[in-house]
UniProtKB/TrEMBL annotation:
It comes from the Eukaryota. InterPro entries: NOL11, NOL11_N. This is Nucleolar protein 11 N-terminal domain-containing protein. It comes from Ranatra chinensis. Residues 1-100 form the Nucleolar protein 11 N-terminal domain.
Amino acid sequence: MAKLCPSYSLCPLIEQKNFLGVSDDGLSGCLIVTLGRNIVIRYRLSDQKQVSSWSSKDKLSAPVVYDSVNKQYIGVFNGDQVAFWQESSVLLNKLKKYKVVFSKIMFDKQIFPLVAKPTNNTLILLLM
């Protein structure tokens, strides 16, 4: 038998196609909500209040994840760039963004969601 928990309405979505995903935050009891255009919002689940948020001129293309080892957030921008930032960052416009390179060969594929493996603190980058 399944137990149903109360639902959460974390943020108003103008269009559902702008929603990229939800991931776990470094702060206990909080979640990261990534909206596709250029917005990342951290919510506290206990009272469903916004804790902080970031915005960027560049378009996010995968859900933002939190790297608990390096204590930073990781986002994928424009499908082929990865950027890292700290909680104290205000705007993501001036972040150094890295093109994805593997063995000195540029990928011609887009980066899709980053997957965090909490068991060994590993982040997996998916290319499609």
